[in-house]
Specification:
241 residues; mainly alpha; 7 helices; 3 strands
Length: 241
């Protein structure tokens, strides 16, 4: 987030913190809704899409297949970010349109992130129809990426809760639900705060916002994908590379 925040600081000056706070508050609700809706309604479709991807790349070993999936999804996200950042080129009305486009892109990026995590979970044999278990996977991956969840040896720590990633599959549903409630709000708030900095960077005129939008969407998806693979590797044996 360093590049985006630096651009915003230089252009926005003293107003940047207020802008980020306001945007983060709005994005927290958007992010939570997008995560929930994607897991509840798109799990089966995401699993089918992952199977199609695996068939189309049958020559790749499992680890190489995952890397290819992350690369393709990141490139797709970057291209979408560039397109959604185009209104920032136009002063005045163009910037107003960009505000709406930026919030819409935040939803799209969240959907893409959750979809990527679920696809990787499916490739590892995890059931995408198990909503609470996959919500925990998604929250932990986004939390690790946002540095809310910390890796301590073979364990994960989030907001005072210690989680053994090797045992998440065997946790009782009510335990998983409680963990999701305990850590979910803080993780979503942190993710929203980071995304708000991206949104503010997109509002820089004269085409800089286009570069920010495309770069940050690409970077976010690539980072989430790599984090998801690392997270899954904590609980499952190494696979051929």
């Amino acid at each position: 987030m360093g590049l985006t925040r630096t651009i915003v600081k230089r252009v926005g000056g003293k107003t940047v913190d207020r802008v980020l706070d306001d945007a983060a508050t709005r994005l927290a609700g958007i992010t939570a809704t997008a995560i929930d809706a994607t897991i509840r309604t798109r799990g089966t479709a995401i699993a089918v899409d992952a199977d199609v991807f695996r068939l189309a790349h049958g020559e790749l070993e499992p680890a190489a297949l995952e890397r290819q999936l992350v690369r393709e999804r990141a490139r797709r996200g970057g291209a979408a970010g560039l397109a959604s950042g185009l209104p920032s080129i136009v002063p005045g009305a163009g910037t107003a349109v960009e505000v709406a486009a930026a919030f819409a892109d935040a939803v799209a990026v969240t959907y893409a992130e959750v979809s990527l995590v679920l696809a990787l979970c499916h490739l590892r044999g995890r059931d995408t129809s198990n909503v609470e278990a996959r919500r925990l996977d998604v929250l932990l991956v986004l939390g690790l990426q946002a540095e809310v969840v910390k890796r301590v040896g073979n364990m994960l720590e989030a907001d005072g809760v210690t989680i053994d990633p090797r045992a998440t599959a065997s946790l009782a549903p009510e335990v998983v639900g409680r963990i999701n409630r305990d850590i979910g709000e803080r993780i979503v708030a942190k993710v929203a705060r980071r995304r708000a900095a991206v949104l503010a960077g997109r509002l820089v005129p004269l085409g800089v916002g286009v570069a920010v939008a495309g770069w940050e969407d690409f970077r976010l998806l690539a980072s989430v994908g790599k984090t998801a693979v690392s997270y899954l590797d904590m609980s499952e044996p190494a696979r051929p590379t």
